[in-house]
Amino acid sequence: MIERIKKLIEMENTNPSSFADSIGISRSSMNHILNGRNNPSLDVLTKILLKYEKINSDWLLFGRVPIYKGEKSFIQASLFDDIPAQVPTIEPKLSSEPRTREYYKDSEPIKPAVEIKIPKKEKLIPPIILPEARSEARSEAMPDARSGAISEVMPKVLPQAISKKITKIMIFYSDQSFDSFNPDNDPFL
Questions:
Q1: Structural domain contains residue 179
Q2: Angstrom distance (rounded) from CA 20 to CA 11
Q3: In a domain, 70, yes or no
Q4: Is position 23 within any domain?
Q5: What digits encode the pLDDT tens for the residues 140-178?
Q6: If 181 and its partner were Cys, which of 10, 23, 107, 169 is the partner (CB 3.0–4.6 Å)?
Q7: How many domains are contained in the chain?
Q8: Predicted TM-score (pTM) of this structure
Q9: Residue 36: is its pLDDT beyond 60?
Q10: Which of 154, 40, 94 minimizes the C-alpha distance to 19?
C-alpha cells in the first residue's frame, strides 16, 4: 500500500509534503508512512480517496487494476468467464430403506497402501499384588510376636543378618552435616 501511495504522489506530480497538505494530514505523518515507520490509518486512506475521487479504492487498498475509476483494465479473461447457464448437477439416490449388507456387497474393502507388520514385544510388567494378597504374604512371613514364632522366622528372613556385625552407622542431616556412630566405641548403643 505504501508503494501505491508513492506511485500516486508521483502520478500527481507533487512531493510528499504538498501531498500531505492537500489531503489534510501532517507532513511528519506522511513521512512516517512513506518511510515504513507507520502504516497508513483508515483516516489517511479516507482522506486520500476523498481528495482524489478518480482513484479506484480497490487499487489503493488491494492493488487491483485499474488505477482510475472508469478505466478498462487489460486483464486476460479467466477460465470461468463463460459459465453455462445451467450447470448439470448430480443428485444422489435417496431412499428411505436402510442400507443392508447387500448394498455394500459390490464395494471392495478399503486396504491400506502399505501394510506394516509390527512385532509384538513382551511386556515387562511386574505382577500386580492385591492388598489382600499382601496382607496374607506379610502374615506368612512375619507372624505376631505373641505367637512365639519369631525365632522360627528370623533364620528364614534374615539368614545373613545374624552372622554379620554392625560396624558403623552414619546419619546425614539436611544442613549437609553428618554423625557417625561406632557400636564398638559407643557404650550407649
A1: no
A2: 15
A3: no
A4: yes
A5: 555 555 555 555 655 555 555 566 777 888 899 999 999
A6: 169
A7: 1
A8: 0.39
A9: yes
A10: 40
